[in-house]
Amino acid sequence: MTHFIRGQFQHIPKVSTFAVDLTGKVVIVTGANVGLGYETAKHLATMNPAKLILACRTTATGDKAAADIARDTGCATVVCWKLDISDAASVKAFGERFEREGGGKLDILIENAGISNWEFKLAASGYEQTIATNHLGTAHLALRMLPFLLKADKPRLVIVASEVHYWVSDPNEADTEGVLQKLNEKDRKGKFYAQMNRYLVSKLFNVLFVRALAAHLPPGTQLTVNSVNPG
Chloroplast: present as a keyword of the record (predicted)? Predict the structure, then answer.
């Protein structure tokens, strides 16, 4: 844990665009109105994408982020689309909108949206909100967008995980029957422990999902699927 905490204070090298060019490419970044998602989208905006979609739960903050990125980078193709990734109906509507307006293919999907709740809350799906957002909604969106990714040339799917997935006290817990129902039990083993544990498990789910999805992709696919530890 001390290694992890020290790592948060390290200065990372400045990222260069090198010769990377996203001309003609369609890119989606979830949770792109603040933090890592915003900085990621802002960087990608400098690479001349055909369309850069900020998928955000709140359109007001998403629209502002899009306007700020456009102002700072000169990217005229950045837009905000509404997406509450914890809500299956919202994910479905987002996928349907992309089918209508996205141009038929998706080159890059960066799933950054995530939360860490300290109070027990249920999402619209009926599952605990951290699990519903960080894992269930994230996996749902990846599968919804998979047909569009597979139509692109050398597409990428990136799910933002975390080093804290190593902190799950019992890794087998993420692979036990009825695990989602168990994680839905309110204040299990005390409020703080339960909520922290749900976040850790959700990040482990991210890694396991990426590995499982990569293993089930059709032979010969050009799609790269990976998870990243931003810390």
Answer: no
Catalytic residue list contains 199: yes
Q: Which CATH number is 140's domain given? A: 3.40.50.720
Asked whether residue 137 is assigned to any structural domain, the reply reads: yes
- Using pLDDT thresholds of 50, 70 and 90, give the confidence band for residue 167: low
Q: Which of 120, 114, 130 is nearest to 57 (CA)?
A: 114
Of 40, 39, 31, 38, give the one whose Cα is nearest residue 58: 31
Q: Does the reported pTM lie above 0.90?
A: no
Active-site pick, 38, 166, 193, 199 = 199
Domain that holds residue 158: 83-228
Q: 148 lies in a domain? A: yes
Residue 69 inside a domain? The answer is: no
Task: Give the alpha-carbon dihedral of 47, 48, 50, 56, to 10 degrees.
Answer: 60
- Rounded to whole angstroms, the Cα distance separating 198 from 184 reads 9
How many domains are contained in the chain?
1
Q: What is the pLDDT of residues 215-224, one digit of tens each?
A: 999 888 999 9
